[in-house]
Amino acid sequence: MQYHIRPVLDIDASSIIEIFNCYVENTFAAFPDKEVGLEFYNTLKNLASGYPFYVSESESREVVGFALLRPYHRAATCQRSAEITYFLEPSHTGRGIGAMFLERLLNDASHKGIDNILACISSLNERSIDFHHKHGFVECGRFRRVGAKCGRDFDMVWMQKLL
User: Fold this and answer.
1) Which of 22, 39, 41, 126 lies 20 to 30 A from 14 at CA?
2) Is 117 exposed, middle or buried (0-12, 13-18, 19+ CB in 10 A)?
3) What's the pTM?
4) Whole-angstrom Cα distance, residue 118 to residue 157?
5) Is the pLDDT confidence value at 26 over 90?
């Protein structure tokens, strides 16, 4: 199956929320413990303002994932750093979409003068940690037991890739 990455549009809001809520309900990949609504899309859109925010579409034009960069910190002295986020519809994982998103976002980051990409990942999300290791990220920090979900404690693992 072929996938196409394009800039996010407001008509994608419900698809983005639906994809994210799959992870809220069933995994430790998303930090909320309750489903999110339209305000979540608006929050993402505001966080990514001035930064790339994409969706991936299948051949049938179904939105199957989203990805974005956002500032790591508001201070102008930290503009060289950005945080990355991506989520894929679970039935479309393992098909190279995450790598496509990553390549596109890293390219965009370079063009914006960003040379430091950070990812914040639940320690219980081993697939994401493995994905980031595979793509050249290294663990640069860990906040122990800062979260709990479904009766399980988790660490916040920070991973970093210098461009």
Assistant:
1) 126
2) buried
3) 0.95
4) 10
5) no
Q: How far apart are CA 157 and CA 139, in angstroms?
A: 7
Residue type, 73: H
List, for residues 46-99, the tens digit of each pLDDT value: 999 999 999 999 999 999 999 999 999 999 999 999 999 999 999 999 999 999
Dist. CA 2–CA 58, nearest whole Å: 6
Among the listed residues 149, 81, 76, 133, the one whose alpha carbon sits nearest the alpha carbon of residue 157: 133
Torsion of CA 35, 39, 45, 48, to 10 degrees: -70
Give the strand order in the sheet containing 152-162. 4-7, 53-57, 63-71, 81-88, 116-122, 152-162, 138-149
Which domains are delineated in the chain?
4-162 (3.40.630.30)
Task: Taking each helix axis as running N to C, give the angle between helix 38-47 and helix 13-26, from 0 to 180 degrees, rounded to the nearest 10.
Answer: 100
State the Cα torsion 27-58-85-134 to the nearest 10°: 80
pLDDT one-digit tens code per residue, 143-163: 999 999 999 999 999 999 999
